[in-house]
């Protein structure tokens, strides 16, 4: 008799099939679990991480645009109508804070703060811009692709090696703002640690800081004009030095071994025009806008670049000055004053005419600051005593001798002339005649500047055009680089706070 094993064999096949399906299901589940984790990481967390930076940088751009208004449109900078609040700090600086703004369709949020500070003696505000961008986090509340938090003893909560569990992504705020809880208020610098719940969903936040520095008129250039340039005399020269490093020495510009040599090669000329007639030596660079320098181009000891266009904004009377003094209201006789102004609140004089001499004394041992607004032509004289800083704003023309502008401070930046640009397009000029030497700066973007004679000049000129026919020796003081009313702001640094 033959025994059949078919039924037993069928049972074994079924068991093997079930085991196979079970193993395949385990593999598929594990693959699905890993794929889900990686999808959550790649599609949601990484996307949110990048979008948070986009939001932070967009907020930084908005704040930087407001900071630029401090130079071009100060009355409308950080206005309440645009959502900004202003507070005054104990040191007199300002802090501007925006509310939280939601942008786009993905729920991105951004908030900004801007604090002014004064790192140099120019009196011009720098801006520290801080911007926070936040992106909502969709998907599962998981920190990364790997659940393992350690491999041996490598895990360290604040160390450089943080284990295998992608724990750097613990920057995700699932329930609470970890940054504020750990470091305090990032915008104000208050180190008080507070627990702030996030709402309505988990989020990722990134923070950037920008430093915006003011661009001032005298930015490493001795003469800068938007129109024609002619000069100086055939035996003239333009060089530079840095007064904070010592007095001017004419031998430095031809002595490369001198440690001050690098500061002697910034006697540059910049022309936004095709006409550049160079007569003397230029110990610096020569820039034109599509022009070809003529005459003694071999006497340019720096770089000649004929593709450097630029624009000069019209100059208007600053609106942030204190109210003017009751007297004097004109200088039609010789007058001596002893003002008490400071760098933040200078003494202001509003004058209708200026035909005689004004002598300005220092207030005791304090540095004394003065702002003069002349609504007519300047044909008089001014004597600035040591310790006095003068900004002279002129609506009309200037016709004086170099010896009429006496600067006893030893620094050209202590006697600054600003020609207010005509609004009706009428011509404007600044004529400096012989005899005498000159130590001053001129910012006259709407004026034709003429210098006659053979003066020794320390300072800088920015004008519509320049003409000089004498054998002038001209020295640009590199300490003027940060001097004058800001014309714009530039980004000096960019960092991301990765704590």
Strand and helix map with partners:
Elements: H1 6-72, E1 84-88, E2 94-98, E3 101-103, E4 108-117, E5 126-136, H2 178-183, E6 203-215, E7 223-225, E8 229-231, E9 237-241, E10 269-271, E11 276-278, E12 281-282, E13 286-287, E14 294-295, E15 304-305, E16 335-337, E17 347-351, E18 357-360, E19 368-374, E20 381-384, E21 388-394, E22 398-401, E23 405-407, E24 415-419, E25 429-433, E26 438-451, E27 456-468, E28 473-477, E29 488-497
Parallel strand pairs: 7-10, 7-27, 8-11, 8-27, 9-12, 9-28, 10-13, 11-14, 13-15, 16-18, 17-19, 18-20, 19-21, 20-23, 21-24, 22-25, 24-26, 25-26, 26-27, 27-28
Antiparallel strand pairs: 1-2, 2-4, 3-4, 4-5, 5-6, 6-29
Mean pLDDT comes to: 85
Count of individual beta strands = 29
Q: Terminal Cα separation, in Å?
A: 84 Å
Count of distinct structural domains: 3
What is the CA-atom radius of gyration, in angstroms?
A: 34 Å
Counted by DSSP, the helix tally is 2
Q: Helix content range of the residues, please?
A: 10-25%
Instruction: Flag low-confidence runs.
Output: 145-168
Strand residue percentage: 25-35%
> What characteristic shape results from the CA principal axes?
elongated
Biggest beta-sheet profile: 18 strands, parallel
């Amino acid at each position: 008799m033959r025994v059949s094993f078919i039924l037993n064999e069928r049972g074994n096949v079924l068991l093997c099939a079930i085991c196979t399906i079970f193993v395949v299901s385990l593999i598929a589940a594990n693959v699905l679990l890993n794929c889900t984790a990686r999808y959550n990481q790649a599609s949601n967390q990484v996307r949110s991480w990048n979008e948070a930076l986009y939001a932070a940088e967009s907020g930084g751009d908005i704040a930087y645009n407001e900071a630029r208004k401090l130079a071009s449109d100060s009355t409308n900078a950080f206005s309440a109508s645009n959502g900004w609040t202003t507070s005054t700090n104990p040191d007199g600086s300002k802090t501007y804070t925006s509310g939280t703004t939601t942008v786009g369709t993905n729920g991105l949020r951004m908030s900004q703060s801007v604090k002014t500070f004064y790192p140099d003696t120019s009196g011009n505000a720098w801006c520290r811009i801080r911007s926070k961008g936040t992106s909502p986090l969709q998907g599962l509340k998981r920190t990364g692709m790997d659940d393992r938090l350690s491999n041996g003893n490598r895990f360290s909560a604040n160390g450089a090696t943080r284990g295998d569990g992608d724990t750097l992504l613990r920057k995700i705020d699932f329930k609470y703002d970890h940054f504020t809880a750990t470091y305090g208020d990032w915008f104000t610098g208050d180190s008080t640690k507070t627990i702030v719940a996030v709402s309505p969903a988990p989020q990722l936040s990134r923070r950037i800081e920008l430093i915006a520095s003011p661009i001032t008129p005298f930015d490493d250039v001795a003469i800068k004009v938007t129109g024609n340039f002619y000069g100086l005399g055939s035996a003239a020269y333009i060089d530079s030095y840095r007064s904070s490093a010592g007095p001017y020495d004419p031998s430095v510009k031809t002595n490369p071994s001198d440690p001050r040599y690098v500061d002697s090669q910034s006697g540059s000329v910049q022309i936004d025009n095709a006409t550049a007639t160079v007569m003397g030596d230029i110990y610096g660079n020569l820039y034109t806008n599509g022009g070809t320098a003529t005459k003694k181009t071999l006497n340019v000891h720096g770089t000649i670049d004929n593709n450097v266009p630029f624009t000069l904004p019209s100059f208007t009377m600053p609106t942030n000055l204190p109210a003017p003094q009751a007297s004097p209201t004109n200088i039609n006789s010789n007058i001596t004053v002893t003002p008490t102004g400071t760098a933040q609140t200078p003494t202001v004089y509003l004058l209708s005419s200026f035909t005689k001499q004004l002598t300005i004394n220092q207030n005791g041992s304090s540095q004394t600051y003065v702002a003069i607004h002349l609504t007519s032509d300047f044909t008089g004289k001014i004597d600035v005593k040591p310790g006095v800083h003068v900004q002279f704003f002129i609506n009309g023309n200037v016709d004086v001798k170099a010896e009429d502008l006496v600067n006893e401070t030893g620094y050209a930046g202590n006697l600054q002339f600003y020609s207010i640009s005509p609004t009706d397009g009428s011509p404007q000029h600044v004529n400096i005649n012989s005899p005498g030497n000159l130590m001053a700066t001129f910012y006259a973007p709407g004026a034709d500047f003429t210098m006659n004679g053979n003066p020794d000049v320390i300072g800088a000129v920015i004008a519509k055009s320049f003409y000089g026919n004498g054998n002038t020796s001209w020295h640009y003081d590199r300490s003027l680089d940060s001097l004058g009313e800001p014309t714009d702001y530039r980004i000096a640094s960019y960092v991301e706070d990765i704590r």
